[in-house]
Specification:
This protein is an alpha+beta fold. It is 23% helix and 28% strand.
Amino acid sequence: MHWSELESFAFADGEGGKPGDKALADSLLALVLAGKKTATCWPASWDGITHVGKRMVVLDSERRPRAVIETTSLVERPFNAVDWDFARLEGENDDLEGWRRDHREWLTANADFSPDMLLCCEQFKVIEILPETA
């Protein structure tokens, strides 16, 4: 299957893929392209986003395709049970406290945050980096 036939999303999008914070989307994409981000999470209430083995196209803030990723692991866990082993794979913070602070802020803006809310915690691998002009 060619990448143009896959579903697409940008990091930092809200529920249902509503465009989110453009600067955040591009900074998270840069971490993926550099090999530093191999995980992400979102509220479990946003059903059906992915499953193990699913491939998706990651978009930049201008909605241009930049990479193809494949979900390698997907588990649900409460926000307050996310540990440093998972959080460090997101590549965004230097410690668990920073991860919790930043994710609490994003979840509060995009969902009904609570410390025990369920998150879908996804690990993925990059299948292909697409040229900027794709």
